[in-house]
Amino acid sequence: MDIKQLNKARLDDIKKSPFGISHGLEVFIKQIEEAQKFNAAQPQVRRPGEEYRRQHVTVYFSWVTNNRLAAHIIIDNRLERLSIPEAGHRLYANYKDGYQANGGGYNKPFHILEAMVRQAQKHIDISNWQDFIKSEVI
Question: 78 lies in which domain range?
């Protein structure tokens, strides 16, 4: 089986799964839901000088090639790879798997993060996601 067929098989397997989403998207959605629940429980008014407590979901990107990035997320104090085929994660030759991002001048990690959030929005309600979902390049 070649790589193109493997990528197609991954997407077909997701459609056949009971929830219709990949494990990576499931992990991402869980982190978003936890952050939304925590942030909703925080007081909306604060006293002068008091810090506003907020939980963030940070997706860490590392460069695999000039146009390809790998994504990671911290879960239980461990850095785990975040593979979401629905958002464009593909298998490539020579173990250079990742998210392909093209386009000059556009923030490539943010472009991929937007794709991830769009896929998550199909399954849960995410409003004002820019306030608590961030990306960083490591």
Answer: 3-137
